[in-house]
Amino acid sequence: MRFGILLPNFGHCCGSAKELTKLAIEGENSGWDGFFLFDQLHFTIDKSTPVVDPWIALAAIALETKRIRIGTLVTPIARRRPWKLARETVSLDHLSEGRLTLGVGLGDPAELEFAHFGENSENQVRAKKLDEGLDILVGLWSGEEFNYDGKYFKVQGVQFLPRSFQSPRIPIWVAGRWPRRRPFLRAARWDGVFPLGLSVGSKLNPDELRTVVNFVRTHRTDTSPYDVVATSGANGNPDKAALSAYAAVGVTWWMEDMRRLRNSYDDLRSQIAKGPPPT
Q: What is the Cα–Cα distance from 60 to 65, expressed in whole angstroms?
């Protein structure tokens, strides 16, 4: 099992690319394997809360680190132009020398991330845009001439170079809220799954994750390596026994959700400096 830090892209320290970069450096030096950011547009609980673009922050992090894996958890492709995201992700993949993972999902909360900007917030529409967007990303990452005729997105005879640094492509993890099945059918097509509970900030216990893993494996059509990502949720750290239970059901990445510390740089740095949980 590998261990990652999961932080929001908002907060009095997490809303700054410079501060996030310092934390990522600390994470790499302290033995963590990954550093992942939320991809949200704004935060309305406290309107004075700073928000940073995660892609700008990840570019800065890529330049200042050498080993740690980086990425988003999660990017709502439905509110992006897939061809613009293709350029951004390939550029970051090269900048980091192949350390990028793209986490994707519908995006929560739908009202704040979509409706407030005049975007369609219906789940079915966002899901269809997500699937079309993933097809386009993979097509443009390939470096070959690409055409696509979808309901929401169209691409005509476009070739993007360079192709992705990683081969065959940038890994894609798909998030979903269990027990909703459709996100996990989607996840079975890609490289990893990030299962969450139905409520914001909630996590799944090992028995629930075992059910998810079995469901995804049943619907996979290839035998390539596959990541299962678990999180501590918003409320605390796992102990050794809990981690062993998650590893036993197939979890390959444990994400330490540190959002509760987002407004205190000193507390975040201290928590990260402790290193990954003992196993």
A: 9
Q: What is the pLDDT along the chain (279 residues), one digit of tens a residue?
A: 999 999 999 999 999 999 999 999 999 999 999 999 999 998 777 778 999 999 999 999 999 999 999 999 999 999 999 999 999 999 999 999 999 999 999 998 898 899 999 999 999 999 999 999 999 999 999 999 999 999 999 999 999 999 999 999 999 999 999 999 999 999 999 999 999 988 776 789 999 999 999 999 999 998 999 999 999 765 566 778 889 999 999 999 999 999 999 989 999 999 999 999 887
pTM (2 d.p.): 0.96
Question: What span, in angstroms and rounded, lies between the C-alpha atoms of 79 and 126?
Answer: 8
Task: For residues 252 and 238, give the distance between their C-alpha atoms in angstroms, rounded to a whole number.
Answer: 15
CB atoms within 10 A of CB 199: 8
**What is 2-273's CATH number?**
3.20.20.30
Please report, for the chain, the start and end positions of each structural domain, with discontinuous segments joined by +.
2-273
